Amino acid sequence: MGDISRFEELFLPHLDAAYNLARWLGSGDEDAQDIVQEAYTRAFKGFAKFRGDNPRAWLLTIVRNTTYTWLRKRASQDKLVPFDEEVHAMPAEPVPSEAYQEARRGQVEAALSRLPAEYREVLLLFEFENWSYKAIAAALQVPIGTVMSRLSRARRRLQQELAHDRPEEMGDEL
Amino acid sequence: MNCEQAKALLDTYIDGELGPDERAQLEQHLETCAECRATLARLRRFRDFFIANGPRYSPPPELKTKVLSRLEIAKRREATAWLRKPWLYAGILLLGGLLLSWWRISADSEKAIAQQAVSNFVRAAALEHLCDVVSPDPGVVGSWLTSKLDFSPPVVLPGLGFQMRGGRLDVVQNRKVAGLVYKRNKDLLTVFVWPAGGQPLRPNSRFLDGKQVSAWTQADLNFVAVSNMSGQGLDEVVDRLKNAIK
User: Which pTM was predicted?
Assistant: First the structure.
């Protein structure tokens, strides 16, 4: 019980990563905030069971599960995560560099949002969280080979989605 | 290794997750195959592009406060979680019941002992057989009783005008006990003594059948004093006896 300060010490530094993961997996800002709060509460309740040396990975696994539960509940309430039309209606003509950069990010985000969640999660965990195949396999409870092939397929799909968005530009970009 | 095999491994190669053998084979192939090298370069560019442009979502600053207050609530819940366990209340009730019945049983047995002491007192008076050994000398009474019993009852004088009359053998709770008999005019006092043997008496005083009864345990011996004197005088006599026995 007196472990709350230790809990906070271990897990609060990963608040941004927790929120980021919830967003990546398809929740909007409000949902992601609720998910993060829920996940921290769950983590605190299960803190006695935490034996690992990687609090970030442990927390993110809980965030992942919480997000899926949340989104499933949401999906049964109102179909799926609303499609953000604005993001998808990105200007296609070349624009000055900063805005251009911004636009590119928007495109990647939009393309990602069209990917299945299991593709997005391996991309995030591997490319941005820098987890190993093995760590991802453990968290997702799938064989390492599945992580490998899923990651490859995720990249191909993302490439396709981006090319579909802006064929002429991706052509010379990639 | 042919191109098809090589292409299947390129992602994993870039990720640095290829085993040493496969990596060596792949690198060998790449040295000789310009097409695969181009594919590898394309994949790398895409990966760099993706990492540079992938979204990074930052939470609003108030999220930390929200999380902290949720944790506070969870902590408080946990602190009082034991209060919400039904078995706890069942346990308390059971223990309370046991204590109550233990208290009642021991109160009952104390009352039974007092009752027995009173009837011994009354019977001896009615039969006019107060003493098996008659002597005003506590030493004589003490040594006679010791010779008849498996313990040595302390025979002392309470003062307050009480004279030693003698001693007798009696029975309380199916065991032989010492009976010390004192008199002060019409006031008769009998003190029953036996080894406590792990069943001490809680100090208690009561009136039974018009007699005053006072019980206590001292020096591993149980004492029950019975008297027909009027008023509240027995307590004072008992105090004197206790002090004298020490």
Answer: 0.58
